[in-house]
Design goal:
Uridine Diphospho-n-acetylenolpyruvylglucosamine Reductase, domain 2; Uridine Diphospho-n-acetylenolpyruvylglucosamine Reductase, domain 3; 3 domains; 6-stranded antiparallel beta sheet; 4-stranded mixed beta sheet
């Protein structure tokens, strides 16, 4: 059973809407013609008509996507869902809460790709950013080229993108101009505001940094209802707070994303290892060859586990040829766990004659198992959108909207071997339930901006590990128990793990997560959202 949390009946008071006001308000839906059961928070504010007519509290609105997320593990039923017609509507809603004697909570929900209710607002209002996008009411996507003040003969390129927009649409729009962002997530059907509130990571991060480092400017509505334009140079405190800030400081309504000329095609390679030490050594060697001006470097690097209880190909991509499945399965059976190194190098007409040679230079001397080298040549778009076909297949089988008890971690390089022996080769094998993808790949700390809110391990190289479980509604707690055992092992072993897409239950845990950034995080909260209105589903300041 999915845990369901409804507003407490003792928390409600009756707010009567007068006939006079109903008649004078244009566009109100029928449910608002009756007395509404609302909390003291909503009763304490005077709803102006432009806001009132965009609130819904009917069962379809409350029980629909506003009370669910991709995780399908919890449900938090809000009091109302807000359907803004403009960014100004969002600012008015927040200002109403901020000025009320008792503020009500507000959460902006895009695609709801969180797994623990982070985009929900129990006893509050959920802002429907997906509907905002679908109605075409936001900023949209605008691709711009401008003279580069640092280069007399050059231009720089960017896209002004609404926070409600999907990255897949950003890709489509920028490719029309021969351009693209440099940093991506593996799955592109996520909103800009959602990924920038966390970090936005994938195999490009080691070279180009997380998505938050590609932002040049933003429009943000703070927890005071103030509309602020911010950048590295202007209102920089808010700029750095919001990026990786888990929605605590403002709602992103526009972000300016740096662009670069888009490649045409991708050499996509997978190599198999049976030795974790060799696997990580090779990964770390490959990410050390970086630099945007270095042609002989990879553009993407990830890694994943192959285990006997899981399929050789999974929903993230079908890569290995069917003819090789039997011998790969035989190897997995022999070693229990295999490690798959996945790399990619982009190219276009200018360097297509050299790309094979450059790739072989990069991969020479690696310690993968001889004979287990696999390569594909695909379009740039096909590579970036590689997860979509797996999603559509699962949707057709009714296996997409199921529980996803995910666990995403950052592990210091110095402790990744201990994590392998204690988790991959112990907890995972003993429990024998992991069938979804398990990712493991390194990143360079110097590609992150420490002024931003995102919290990462304090080592030059650290690993991301993602347990991307899917389960039935009757057995997700077994995966949840495994996640807890992994975290407990890290705690006892002294592994300084940090959660990505974090989920903590106490403020002490949050303080430990942010470490030396915690004091700044709290100060920024008091500065930009002093009444603790925004993103209550993160449970940072309202435990």
């Amino acid at each position: 059973m999915v845990a369901e949390n409804y507003p407490s009946p003792t928390y409600f008071i009756l707010l009567f809407i007068t006939i006079t006001r109903l008649i004078s308000t244009v566009g109100k839906t029928s449910q608002w013609t009756k007395a509404l059961s609302l909390t003291p928070e909503l009763a304490s504010v005077s709803l102006d008509d432009t806001i009132f007519c965009k609130l819904r509290d009917d069962p379809e609105a409350l029980q629909g996507r506003a009370s669910r997320d991709y995780g399908n593990l919890v449900r938090e039923v809000p009091l109302a869902v807000f359907h803004p017609a403009s960014a100004s509507d969002i600012a008015r809603l927040i200002k109403l809460s901020y000025n009320g004697s008792v503020p009500f909570k507000i959460a902006a929900r895009g695609q709801g790709h969180s797994t623990r209710g982070q985009a929900m607002a129990r006893e509050g209002v959920v802002v429907d950013m997906a509907g905002f996008r679908e109605r075409g009411n936001g900023v949209g996507i605008r691709v711009v080229s401008s003279v580069d003040p640092n280069n007399k003969n050059g231009y720089y390129y960017y896209a002004d993108v609404g926070g409600e927009q999907l990255w897949i649409d950003v890709l489509h729009a920028t490719l029309e101009h021969g351009l693209a962002p440099m940093s991506w997530t593996d799955y592109l059907y996520l909103t800009l505001g959602g990924t920038l509130s966390n970090a936005g990571i994938s195999g490009q991060t080691f070279r180009y940094g997380p998505q938050i480092t590609t932002v040049r400017e933003m429009d943000v509505i703070t927890g005071k209802g103030e509309f602020v334009t911010c950048s590295q140079q202007t209102n920089s405190e808010l700029f750095h707070a919001v990026l990786g800030g888990l929605g605590q400081f403002g709602i992103i309504t526009r972000a300016r994303i740096a662009l670069a000329p888009a490649p045409k095609r991708v050499k996509w390679v997978r190599l198999l290892y049976n030795d974790f030490s060799a696997f990580t050594k090779d990964q770390e060697q490959l990410i050390s060859v970086t630099g945007r001006k270095q042609n002989v470097s990879l553009d993407y690097l990830e890694g994943l586990l192959l285990m006997h209880q899981g399929p050789i190909n999974n929903w993230r991509s079908s890569f290995f040829p069917l003819a090789d499945h039997a011998r790969i399965i035989s190897l997995v059976t022999k070693h229990s766990v295999l490690y798959c190194l996945e790399v990619a190098k982009y190219y276009d007409g200018q360097n297509e004659n050299n790309v094979d040679k450059e790739l072989q230079v990069l991969l020479q001397g690696l310690s993968y198992i001889p004979g287990f080298y696999y390569e594909k040549d695909v379009s740039y778009f096909e590579f970036l959108n590689r997860v979509r076909s797996g999603e559509l297949k699962l949707q057709s089988q009714g296996l997409w909207d199921v529980p996803h008890p995910w666990l995403n971690l950052f592990i210091p390089k110095s402790q990744i071997m201990e994590f392998d022996s204690g988790v991959f080769k112990n907890i995972i094998l003993k429990r024998n339930i992991t069938t979804g993808p398990v990712l493991v790949y390194p990143m360079n700390r110097n590609k992150w901006d420490n002024r931003m809110s995102a919290s990462i391990p304090d080592e030059d190289i650290f690993y991301t590990v993602g347990f991307l479980h899917s389960s039935g509604f009757d057995n997700w707690k077994a995966y949840d128990a495994q996640n807890k055992e992994i975290l407990q092992f890290c705690n006892v072993a002294g592994i300084k793990v940090k959660q990505y897409l974090p989920h903590y239950r106490t403020q002490e845990d949050w303080a430990n997560h942010f470490g030396p950034k915690w004091r700044t995080f709290v100060e920024r909260k008091h500065q930009f959202d002093p009444r603790m209105i925004l993103s209550p589903g993160q449970r940072i300041f309202n435990n």
